[in-house]
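#help-structures

NK: newbie question. if I give both the sequence and a SMILES, will the prediction place the ligand too? trying with flavin-adenine dinucleotide
OV: yes, paste both and it writes out the complex. here, I ran yours:
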Amino acid sequence: MPDKDLCKSAIVVGGGPAGLTAAIALAQGGIETVLVGRRPAPGDNRTTALLAGSVTALATLGVWELCADKAAPLKIMRIVDDTGRLWRAPEVKFAAQEIGLDAFGHNIENRHLIDALERRARGLPNLRLIEDAVFDIAPGERSVLLALTSGETLQAPLVIGADGRRSLCREAAGIGIEQHKYPQVALTVCLRHSRPHRDTSTEFHTPGGPFTLVPLPGQRSSLVWVLDPADADELAALDDAALSDAIERASHSILGKIAVEPGRGRFPLTRVNARRFARNRIALVGEAVHVIPPIGAQGLNLGLRDAATIGEIAIAARRAGRDIGGINALAQYDQMRRADVGSRTLAVDLLNRTLLTDFLPVQGARGLGLYMLDRIGPLRRALMREGVAPRGSRPRLMRGEAL
Ligand SMILES: Cc1cc2nc3c(=O)[nH]c(=O)nc-3n(C[C@H](O)[C@H](O)[C@H](O)COP(=O)(O)OP(=O)(O)OC[C@H]3O[C@@H](n4cnc5c(N)ncnc54)[C@H](O)[C@@H]3O)c2cc1C
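OV: that's the protein plus ligand as structure tokens.
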């Protein structure tokens, strides 16, 4: 590939939310972009709690206006200790108003978010969408060659691997992983309820893991129930009426009468961390580079920060006439994402382990931590600010600046 072409084009592999966001950011910044991906499998009933920075980034990319009416604001977050253990923590309530925000973020069903991203992507003249799978990836010195199942081949100086947890891009780049499987499963379901949620998300900490209700528009909420796999199977086998009753009991009827909607998801909890974020002209984003348990709404928020960061770096390189997939750009990406992803992974892992442990001192430390958060206003506000907009990682899109 001649020098003049090393700053012009990129290929994104994977049409999930992280890949679509990266492709839109690159194309809007003037890079000729191709996205190759199959549509996500139908029937994913998950929702995503998008924190304020992610919402700002999607608004800056022209996506949020296409789905804002399908999202519910998260104004209050409650943590309730439902472990029934000797040292129980007090209930802790975080209010967005306390840190001058109207909402911590918004919760939206994944299908609506992906639909809005696809609509925005289709409207960009320098973004080509190919509904297909990549089956071979060959990184070279000056470009990466991709073979599609249709027989078409593509080539670019930068490939964004957004192809999920079993990433072919990661393998082709020669990047290894560290993996941990937790003895838990997340059961997901959307539901209707007779009492209003008042824009409040409630997380019950139970001995099996968190049971989290997150508001959706109207008198609807989504539930992520983390529990022992056998218990999850037993619940998933119940009919709608019995499952609704079980959820109402577990939620102490805070939302009144519950009626589950069709569709149930079952997600074994794993943690996967790629050893590097980028190598051999391939930069990984989203679950291709980190999978963390669905606790504390971090996964896709991290994925969107990956997408915003690689977009920012590649567009700056293009404007300066530099190689957008070269060693310098990729090293900068790795350096900018490492601390953010590492610290969130650790926090989620620790919180989950403190729930599972029977070791009294650890249970006590968790209770004390929550007690301090409840009592010490500045500490609580610092944690809220860091949760919504991490100081160490605020890509330009998350600050509302176009690339
Ligand atoms: C129960 C649950 C609740 C969650 N809740 C939240 C939350 O509230 N907030 C939050 O921030 N995160 C949450 N997450 C995490 C979030 O859902 C994930 O981070 C996100 O879906 C990952 O998106 P992605 O684009 O990286 O990957 P994916 O959505 O997996 O997309 C990858 C895409 O790549 C495609 N692909 C794969 N291989 C190829 C190939 N060879 N060629 C072409 N295409 C390919 C696939 O078909 C797929 O469409 C939750 C996760 C779970 C399990």
